[in-house]
Amino acid sequence: MFNSIFSIQKLLFGFILCLWGGKQSIAQVEYDSTYVDYVDENFQVDRILISAGLSRIYPQNALNENLDPRFGFSAAVSMRLPTRVPLFAGVDFGTYTFDRYSENYFLTDDDGFQFEVQEVSSSKLFNLHTVFRAQPYFRFFIHPYAEVFLGGKHFYARTRVTDLDPPDGADEELSNEGQFGDWALSYGASLGLNIPLSSNHEGGVEFDLKIMYLGGTNSNYAVELEEINFNNYTDTFDAFELQSSSTNLLATQLGLIIYFGW
After folding, report:
1. Residues 251 and 189 occupy one common structural domain
2. Which of 46, 98, 137, 220 suits a disulfide with 182, CB 3.0-4.6 Å?
3. Residue 177: which domain range?
4. Strands 87-108 and 172-200
5. Do 198 and 216 share a domain, yes or no?
6. Is the distance from CB of 236 to CB of 119 less than 8 angstroms?
7. Nearby residues of 182 by Cβ (< 8 Å), 6 or more positions away
8. Same domain for 114 and 178?
9. What percent of the chain stands above pLDDT 70?
């Protein structure tokens, strides 16, 4: 009896394996035929992607209490991975200025002549991430995609002094010094859409629209004071104070993506 039950179990298991194998074979044929069609009709040359655009970040949680939303610039470069699923890997970066405080005053040179200078201190953010992008092939005029990010956020501040009255008439930078800098671990994901604008056998251009969320660990960053204490004021960076919090951000991006092949 036990031998009979064991034989039936082996038969059922073999039948299930056959069904599963047949299903996988059918799926393989269907996928491959779709893939070949896509290659034939869309040339399959999009090996390198270059994107750039205008982005706007919205600080979240505690960061939102100290910093306001700001526009900035972001760009990315990625390369197709040798996988069946269309995956890309690359780097993504963005740069933003949060607060800015400036003052004009006069200095005297060695010959006794006065000249006007402008001193500007600004609080900035630089994002740098490794990005992995998945973009399934669809026979549709809109191409959706998803990305995951892992990298860092660099909060820093700089003070720049410019001569406004140089002999040649063009503003001359006298100094550009870093005041402080701090890094935070950054991670997140995005969802986006590409709309083709032009394409040929060598590549193409697409409109790029996406929204992303970037979580982050704690970091220090410079925030402009609501009231400046001029008793302790020595330069424009004294108009700032350092705050610390988590660095979660929501961001939107509008730009173009160019793809090339070989």
Report:
1. yes
2. 220
3. 47-260
4. unpaired
5. yes
6. yes
7. 154, 155, 156, 219, 220, 221
8. yes
9. 81
Q: Two tokens at 210?
A: 């996406």
Smallest Cα–Cα separation from 188: which of 154, 152, 218? 152
Contact between 160 and 179 (Cβ < 8 Å): no
More confident residue, 171 or 28: 171
The closest alpha carbon to 150, from 199, 186, 189, belongs to 186
pLDDT by residue (tens digit) across 93-129? 999 999 999 998 888 887 788 888 899 999 999 999 9
d(CA 19, CA 13): 10
Are 115 and 29 within one domain?
no
Q: Are both 32 and 81 inside the same structural domain?
A: no
| 39-53 burial code (b ≥16 CB/10 A, e <16) | eeeeeebbebbebbb
- Is residue 75 classed exposed, middle or buried when 0-12, 13-18 and 19+ CB atoms within 10 A define those classes? middle
Tokens 């972001």 -> residue? 74
- Alpha carbon of residue 33 to chain centroid: 35
Same domain? 80 vs 10:
no
How many domains does one find in the chain?
Answer: 2
pTM exceeds 0.85: no
